[in-house]
Amino acid sequence: MPVYTAPTRDTRFVINELLKLESYGNLPGFETATQDVTDAIIEEAGRFVNEVVAPLNLSGDKEGCTRHADGSVTTPAGFKEAYKQYIDGAWGTLAAPEAYGGQGLPHVMGFTMECYLASANQAFAMYPGLANGAISAIREKGSPEQQAMYLPKMVSGEWLGTMNLTEPHCGTDLGLIRTRAEPKADGSYAITGTKIFISAGDHDLTENIIHLVLAKTPGAPESSKGISLFIVPKFIVNADGALGEKNGVSVGSIEEKMGIHGNATCVMNYDGAKGWMVGEEHKGLAAMFIMMNAARLGVGMQGLAQAEVAYQNGLAYALDRRQGRALTGPAEPQERADPIIVHPDVRRMLMDGKTFVEGMRALCLWGALQVDLTHKGATEADRQEADDLISLLTPVIKGYGTDMGYKVATDMQQIWGGHGYIAENGMDQFVRDARIAMIYEGANGVQAMDLAGRKLALNGGRAVQRLFALVDGECAETSADETVQLVSDRLSKVTGEMKAATMWFMQNAMANPNNLGAGAYPYMTLTGIVSLGLMWLRMAKIASAAIANGAEDKAFYEAKLACARHWATRHATEAGALRREIEAGSETVMALSADQFAIA
User: Fold this and answer.
1) Of these four, 176, 287, 449, 508, which has the most CB atoms within 10 Å of its CB?
2) What number is the average pLDDT over the span 369-374?
3) How far apart are CA 308 and CA 60, in angstroms?
4) Which residues contact 165 (CB under 8 A, 6 or more apart)?
């Protein structure tokens, strides 16, 4: 049976020592986020997911969701009861605005809970997770009447939400959508069309579901500039807030997926369904991007989450499974064989996993803090810097985070050997659930192009220059600790490789855009290595100081230094090869004609 224990100790380290969340107490929403409060939330959130949500992961995967003859959908056994406990505990309200019934805590605290949920049970976590993006879109672009009608019950979790973009013939290129919105005399629109791959499209967890749907009004431009966004509730909400008639939206089928079986990924049919426009006509893509950016950070966190739970199970097996002897002689001579954790190749995978998981946790929570500071920073300059950094790194957190999350999941399955391929042990589920995160909310190649093709040049390259200045400043702070110095030196070199690659794009992408396209993916990976390196340098400095000051939990901080060294000696070394791959340009990538790809 798979195991999961929320990493509360490491989370408290990131929140209290790395981010120093309490130091932002002068900012709105941070005043109540004292260490006593955040520690209590972290520990209680961990207890909840350990005891209530994690035990449903394997069973939910096996059972999946069911579409019934009447078109209704039920979730796996236990999901509905667990969701009620989630609502009763107000876990979804942590970072929601107080004006709509939320607790108004920093976004970083809500993100912590989301990460625990996703590790414990990714399919379950997606139900409330998707609603967060819908809440953000309605809050930013909805009318006061729409906000008053929908947000209180969405924030409380009584209602959930979805985002409806993809259609059978189009995914990323949303300008091709065919869903139509015909205006009606009462100010509403009749929405007609089919959407696919709609996570949490229908379920039995809540009495209503608020769908946000992209569609085109009559005469709208055929490009993405003609898209509008609409609220289409499963049940019409009357003026008094009570639920009225069933809307013209139905589930055509539940997709048969590789993973996340406990989440109902639906084909949604809109047959003249009643909808209301959110924001301005033809400005729907801007509104939807509010949801998509929130979702992309959430998906990056899913990469971390699956790596975390897979790592915990890989470690447990490595400590328990006995096979062979340590290369330096028997570690436990009284036994017939040593536990496989003595073998360097197993250690390699475990160290890679631990270094990624702890580094990515720091990066994700630091990123969530930038989201907070974008809105609540003390000065306009602070807000602009935070916005630049998180805008630049959102595709990196999503793309690099899910690439590495999947790699760690497969490495942990490898540690289990043949037993990792047996479904009852759960390792295959982590691999399958991790794989989707590389695809949805914009496949990782799309994320790479967003980074290299759009974010780099934005505002004259201001965001990437901010990142370089941040890293250079951290590296300039010297330390007597040899591990800190090693990490600082390697991070400086890695950042130099990224600077060189950035300059190469500037010199070679304009004349041949394929050079940018061919190099975008390794550039995203390179940026991910730099970003995690920044986190590891910061954590190494904290760990070194804690040990020097006689910290009681010395072993914890020694492990941090060991992982920082591992990043410096095993991961940072990839940067040079990535730069050379970028500078190879697009010649070989684009060398064949389409028909030459066939195998003769």
Assistant:
1) 287
2) 95
3) 19
4) 174, 177, 195, 214, 288, 292
Q: Look at residue 165 and give its three-state secondary structure.
A: coil
- 485: pLDDT confidence band, cut at 50, 70 and 90? very high
Residue 290 clears pLDDT 90, i.e. is over it: no
* Per annotation, catalytic residue among 114, 358, 385, 441: 441
What sign does the dihedral 122-164-170-526 (CA atoms) show?
Answer: negative
pLDDT in tens, 9-28: 999 999 999 999 999 999 99
Phi, psi of 93 (to 5 degrees): -95, 0
Nearest to 7 by CA among 105, 118, 163: 118
Q: Is 386 exposed, middle or buried (0-12, 13-18, 19+ CB in 10 A)?
A: buried
Tokens of 288: 């939807």
pLDDT the model gives residue 600: 82
What is the predicted pLDDT for the residue at 175? 63
| Pairwise CA distance, residues 245 & 249, whole Å | 11
Closest CA to 304 of 353, 361, 239: 361
Tell me which amino acid residue 251 is.
V
The pLDDT value given to residue 174: 65
* Residues facing 277 on adjacent strands: 230
pLDDT score at 539: 98
Residue 8 has pLDDT above 90, yes or no: yes
Does residue 171 register a pLDDT over 70?
Answer: no
Bridge partners for 580 per DSSP: none
Dist. CA 398–CA 411, nearest whole Å: 20
Average pLDDT over residues 383-392: 96
CA distance 386 to 75: 39
Structure tokens at 184: 């009606």
Residue of 171, 181, 15, 8 whose CA lies nearest to 106: 15
Pairing relationship of beta strands 73-74 and 235-237 according to DSSP bridges: unpaired
Give me the amino acid identity at 522: P
For the segment 50-62, what is each residue's pLDDT rounded down to a tens digit?
A: 999 999 999 999 9
Give the pLDDT mean for 112-138.
94
Residue 465 phi/psi, 5-degree rounding, is: -65, -35
CB 215 within 8 A of CB 179: yes
Which string of DSSP letters, residue by residue, matches 83-108? HHHHHHTTGGGTTS-GGGT-----HH
User: How far, in Å, CA of 310 to CA of 328, rounded?
Assistant: 28
Q: Which amino acid is at 510?
A: M
Question: How distant is the alpha carbon of residue 174 from its chain centre?
Answer: 22
Alpha helix (H) ranges present in 277-426? 284-320, 344-376, 380-415
Spatial contact of 413 and 432, defined as CB atoms under 8 Å apart? no
441 is known as an active-site residue: yes
Burial class for 236, CB neighbours closer than 10 Å (0-12, 13-18, 19+): middle
CA 48 to mean position of chain CA atoms: 21
What is the spatial distance between Cα 367 and Cα 31, in angstroms, rounded to a whole number?
20
Q: What is the pTM of this model?
A: 0.96
Q: Is 78 left (phi over 0), alpha (psi -120 to 50) or beta?
A: left
Amino acid at 210: I
- Residue 516 burial (CB count, 10 A): 23
Under 8 Å between Cβ of 92 and 86: yes
